[in-house]
Each structure stands twice: as C-alpha cells, then as structure tokens.
Specification:
Helix content is 24%, strand content 23%. It has 294 residues and is of the alpha+beta class. The strands form five sheets. It has a seven-stranded mixed beta sheet, covered by helices on one side.
C-alpha cells in the first residue's frame, strides 16, 4: 500500500496520491487518464477524482498498479474494484489488471474461448484473479510475447495445467515452456489464433492475432495518447530497430481492429482507419530510420 509520508510533491491536494515507489509504467494513466499525470519520472495525481466514474477509474488504477504506489484515505470500494478484474474489452477479450512489477507493469489479457481460454502475457499471481479465471473455465494456453513480460506465467501454468507458448529465442525466460516456436513465419497455434514473429524489441518477440480482429502486440507497438496515433519507439527497442521496422511492414499484411499492447495505450479503430494508421506508422518510421543513417 502506498505511503503518504513518501507522496511526491506534484500530487494535487486531496485524498488520492502517488508515492515515490512509482516506476512510471503508465498503468494508472491508461486506466484513469483524467486523474493521473506524468512528471517524466513518476506518475502523480494531477486532478483529484470528482465524479463517481472518475473515482471508480482511480480505484481500478490502484488495484492494477504493479508497485502499490497509489493511495487514498477512502478505502471503501477498493475491494469491489478488485473484483471487476478481468475487465471486459469485448469479443470475449479481457484486460487482466493486477500488473506485475516483474514485467515493469506490463499489461496482460485473458481470452475466453470455447476451444480453451488464453492468457496473453502474465499478470501478478493473485488468488482473487485466479478465482475469476476458474469461474470462466480456467486457462488452457499462456502465450508469451517475449521475455520481458512473462511475470508469473509459470505459476499460472502450474495452477491450471496450461501450455505456455514462447519463441525459442526467448526461451531463457521460461526454459520449461511446453511449446516452443521456431523460425520467423506465422504459425497457427489453434483455430482463430495466429502467432506472428515480430523481431525487433527482442530477437524472438511475437504478436498474437485473434480472429483477424485483435492484435496483441507485446512491446512492438501501441497507441500514443499524446500524438493520437499508433507508435513504436527506437528508445525501447532492445535488439534491432531495423528488424522492428521490417516487422512493422510485415503487420501491414494483416487486418485487425484492436491493438492491445503490453506497454502503452490500447485502441480500437475501424479496419480502414487501422490500415491507414499502419501505413502511416511504417512511413514515419522508415523515414526516421533513413534520416539517421550516417
């Protein structure tokens, strides 16, 4: 739980605050952008939540925060907020919440499917969330986009007898994974689920396309709230920026409406607008890469 004695100076006066344990992962700003702001080093309470909807969003952010850095003097409603997770996004897809510090606060998702339910990357292992998964039929598959966001995948796999899926080049993070993907061609993992290798952020990074509708992008790309467009960044590319640019071009060949990232804002657009955004993103990034060549 957050410590009021360590609250950062930028917090607006009032019941809600962020303390100095914050790692600035962006989770709270994704869930409650009207309440939380960014100093560049920490999140902070920019505006105290006022309406019922704003308070509810702040409570969800408190629950999801990976480091327990959000505090409030009014604890009522926090347990009820925890029970809201996983949050329905539509089409049987849920945002798990309970982000893990092991993945630097990365987002994870739950897919309810008649052929077996999926986790995409891993939240913290929390019994409250485990019970919600059990109520929906458990977890059959755990798809891991890359090594950074495995968090407590092993615990979920053991609890549910689930099959973890990861690329061989990321296997050091889950050496006992049950299914290993080789090479760089798309692989149908099960009906409606296509693994798409997208090297760049890491060597074995993969995206997951569900029903030609939802693209789980890991740390490959995300929606920028500040710019109002799809984004990718060389500054958080750990393996190869040229390879990441190639992967961005590859994804232009697929059709989808949702981008659900591990880090960064999620977004739903029409297929036409998503296609336009993908073309624009590729064009901007290719131009940037060319301009930086010696």
């Amino acid at each position: 739980m957050a410590d009021r004695n360590r609250k950062i100076a930028e917090n607006a006066a009032g019941e809600w605050f962020v303390d100095s344990s914050c790692i600035n992962c962006d989770t709270c700003r994704q869930l409650a952008p009207g309440t939380f702001g960014d100093t560049g080093e920490f999140s902070f309470v920019a505006v105290q939540p006022g309406s019922d909807d704003e308070v509810a969003a702040a409570r969800r952010a408190l629950v999801a925060c990976p480091t327990g850095s959000i505090g409030t003097s009014d604890k009522s409603g926090v347990a009820a907020a925890a029970d809201e997770f996983p949050l329905a996004l539509g089409n049987g897809v849920f945002y798990c919440g309970f982000n893990s510090p092991k993945s630097y606060g990365g987002n994870s998702y739950f897919v309810e499917h008649p052929g077996g339910n999926w986790l995409v990357d891993s939240p913290r292992f929390v019994e409250r969330l485990v019970r919600r998964f059990e109520e929906r039929g458990g977890v059959r598959y755990v798809f891991l986009t890359h090594r950074d966001d495995v968090a407590d995948a092993g615990q979920y796999a053991r609890r549910f007898g689930a099959e973890r899926i990861i690329h061989r080049l990321e296997l050091a993070s889950q050496p006992d994974a049950e299914r290993v993907i080789d090479g760089f061609e798309p692989v149908e993992l099960a009906p409606e689920f296509l693994a798409i290798p997208t090297p760049g952020h890491t060597r074995g990074h993969m995206a997951l396309l569900y029903r030609d509708l939802v693209l789980f992008t890991g740390d490959h790309m995300w929606w920028s709230r500040a710019r109002g467009r799809l984004s990718a960044s060389r500054s958080v590319c750990w393996y190869s920026w040229p390879e990441q640019l190639k992967s961005l071009r590859l994804l232009r060949g697929f059709s989808f409406e949702w981008v659900l990232p591990g880090h960064g804002q999620r977004v739903q657009l029409s297929r036409e607008e998503m296609s336009r955004q993908m073309e624009s993103l590729g064009g901007r990034r290719l131009h940037l890469a060319a301009s930086r060549r010696p």
